[in-house]
């Protein structure tokens, strides 16, 4: 493939990038308030009912030390599942639909913008 064709393909791929790539971290901090009852991020973050979420993006599922994961999460870990942005967005939209048997009681974030924003916020805690 010549250089022009490669650049064109890259530009097209970016133009079809999902909206979550454009999330607003500041707005995501506000959306994350819905998650704080069970999850922490930032310096000194600890596991609660759910694991701390520092470094979650592009990390393997069920990888936070000293957290007891449910069987469905451990099964996905065996398969090499990674929390890329797309998987995280799908999960945040409807956790119980994506991972059957999850203990997470949260109903999900139905608005794509909210998911994009909270993912942008989580990305600040690598």
Structure report:
This protein is mostly helical and 126 residues long. It has one domain: Cytochrome Bc1 Complex, Chain D, domain 2, CATH 1.10.760. Helix content is 41%, strand content 0%. It has 6 helices and no strands. The longest helix has 13 residues.
Features:
Cytochrome Bc1 Complex, Chain D, domain 2, mainly alpha, 126 residues, globular, disordered N terminus, 41% helix
- Using the 3D structure, state the CATH architecture: Orthogonal Bundle
The helix/strand order is: HHHHHH
Global outline = globular
Unreliable stretches (pLDDT < 50, length at least 5) are: 1-20
Number of helical elements: 6
Helix content: 40-55%
What's the CATH first level?
Mainly Alpha
Largest sheet: none
- Whole-angstrom Rg: 16 Å
Q: Roughly what fraction of the amino acids lie in strands?
A: under 5%
Structure class: mainly alpha
Number of beta-strand segments? 0
What is the CATH topology classification name?
A: Cytochrome Bc1 Complex, Chain D, domain 2
First-to-last CA distance: 35 Å
What's the rounded overall pLDDT mean? 87
Chart the SSEs and their pairings:
Elements: H1 3-15, H2 25-31, H3 71-78, H4 85-93, H5 95-98, H6 112-122
Helix pairs in contact: 2-6, 4-6
Task: Give a summary of the structure in a few sentences.
With 126 residues, the protein is mainly alpha-helical.
